[in-house]
Amino acid sequence: MKARHKRLGFLTIGIVALGLSTWLVVNALGSNLSYFFSPSEVAEGAAPSERIFRLGGLVKPDSVERGEELLVRFQVTDHAHDVTVVYSGILPDLFAEGQGVVAQGRLNEQGQFVAERVLAKHDENYMAPEVKEALARAHADGVAQEASTYAAAESSGSYSSRGGESGAYSTSGVTQ
Fold first, then answer.
1. pTM higher than 0.85, yes or no?
2. What is the spatial distance between Cα 15 and Cα 29, in angstroms, rounded to a whole number?
3. For domain 34-157, which CATH number applies: 2.40.50.140, 3.90.550.10, 3.40.190.80, 2.40.128.110?
């Protein structure tokens, strides 16, 4: 065998080994990716049921229920939809109702999110960018829905802009 053929053989083996190692790395990374979903996206069915993903939002006030051992149930909300989370373990010190949370796990057959890990925000000003964006989207949807309700009430004459003298709505936000 000539030196030229040996070099070509080594080059071919090197390219095949490089391709195989690249494929193995990409395959390993792809199976470990954990995507983020908001409660609205989970309610719409966008979240995978067979894979682990992250669910983020705010812990809904008065939704935390502590069960046997370390079992905890709570709801994560983006103010448009709520998702029930079931977690067995010690919650972070900063976990509280009305605070931001990111849970990692998967959906069960009942549509509950079974968390393997729960992460709480680390200070009073921080919120994960994905959570902030999901909350802003839900808020915009809620404002649009409230505006259409306001317009319907105003056109039917059940809204009064003079302090709510005759109607179900008032400008102060107090229902009469």
1. no
2. 21
3. 2.40.50.140
